[in-house]
Amino acid sequence: MYGFTTIFIYALAAELCRRCCRILLAAFTGPLSKIPGPVIGKFTSWPWLIQVIKGNQMNIGPRLFQKYGPVVRVGPADILFADKAAIQKILVEDDFRKSHDYERIREDPHVASLITETDKVKYKQKRRQLSPAFSISYLNGLEALMHECIQVFTRVLDTKCNEAHGAVVIDMNRILAHLTSDVMSAASFGGSFNLVESDDNTQMNIFHSYMRRLALDAQFTFIKYLPGVPLASSEISVLINRIVSRRRQEMEKGIAKKDILQIFIDTNDADPVSFTDKHIEEEMILFMIAGSDTTSLTATFTLLLLLNNQEKLRELRAEIDSAFPSQDDTITFAKTQDLPYLNAVINESMRMMPIVTAGVVRLVPETTIICGYEIPKDTIVSTWISEMQRDPRIWRDPNSFIPERWISNYKGVAADRKAFMPFSAGSRNCIGQQFALKELRLILATLLQRYELSLVPGQSHELRVHTVPWFKQGFYNIGVKRRE
Ligand SMILES: *[C@@H]1O[C@H](CO)[C@@H](O)[C@H](O)[C@H]1NC(C)=O
């Protein structure tokens, strides 16, 4: 007869053995075992997840694809794809649901935002609710607001130039982040944050620490329950409460607005149980991040690429000068929308340096075949749009900045719009893409119309990604001088 302790130890050993066998079986015999990748990835995703938390996956991913090809296994049930047909299938044709990662970054597991909703039906509902604030006519109505914000921006730049008696070096990454925050807050929340004018970085810093926390919270869901650890959004909540209560006061005074904040407040008033105050907060955080940093980074990356390709910069400036011959000519939505080279430059910039630099993650709902591999249910599949957009099988000279490829064939090849997804694709693509493009065109055209921009050499282009990319050096400087 065995005693209790012996049986207990025996059982433990057997359980351990069972787990090891399972891991070994999955590593070497499961359907995913045929997919190439680092050996450690057969057993555990941890080395990969650590890179994700460090914001370094965007630098490691391309190296893995280089070594193993367009399909790479980085964990027992964790696969990266850079292949166009695979990405089309995952995001567009089969339109898989979002992975549990998105649920894990919710602060309250029951409160989902437009980004963190993983249920396809509920997502559709949310998106429909917001669609009035993204209709063409509504967006066109925002033109005057955007102009006001951009005027403050040029006034600040002019003052800096005057103070320096000519040329001045500006951290474009910072001032553009302030500008797009001002535009987003003016358009969505009824009042500009006025960050360009104040140059106050407190708010940006709060958002940046929030975004870093998200990656950590997504992997360690228990973090927020540890004693002494604040919620990721604790500082943002204060800011948001202020905006919401100001709006509610205005409503009492009978001032009516029709913006995104109002949609949230009306939804909350109509059904405070299923759309709570916490829902308002989550949605607003999302809009603050998705509606500002993404656009400012795209603008900064575009300037970076232009400054490093001076002949393209001259070409674009010639186009803008002929569309707006006098510096007093107003840069408009309508006119910039039709400038072929400007739009080609923006596309080419988003192809080479998209904002979504790492994988867009989905969950496989039923066993399926992708790229000839059998992918079982519940596998996590990441679509690497950034890698596809530099695929040499699709793009000639993929690492060169060639806006012309968007206007006519380049080396006999037309730009493949199906291999270009800067706003993601499928049902979960970016709701704000037209807003962003309108804003980008105004910002870039205004900068080139009014200023001589120059490269500040010796800067690092190294990036990290925490939700959106960051310059590792923390800034991106550009020389600015008023044009005569
Ligand atoms: C830029 O890309 C979009 C999306 O693929 C496309 O509709 C548009 O025509 C492109 N612009 C130019 C100038 O090629």
Automatic annotation (TrEMBL):
**Cofactor(s), names only, from the UniProt record:** heme
Q: Is Metal-binding one of the keywords?
A: yes
Q: State the superkingdom.
A: Eukaryota
User: Can you tell me which residues bind heme?
Assistant: 430
Q: Which UniProt keywords apply?
A: Heme, Iron, Metal-binding, Monooxygenase, Oxidoreductase
Concerning InterPro entries, the annotation shows: Cyt_P450, Cyt_P450_CS, Cyt_P450_E_grp-I, Cyt_P450_sf, Cytochrome_P450_monoxygenase
Enumerate the PROSITE patterns for this protein: CYTOCHROME_P450 (PS00086)
Q: Name one GO molecular function term.
A: heme binding
Question: What family classification does the UniProt entry report for this protein?
Answer: Belongs to the cytochrome P450 family.
Protein name (Swiss-Prot/TrEMBL): Cytochrome P450
Organism of derivation: Hyaloscypha hepaticicola
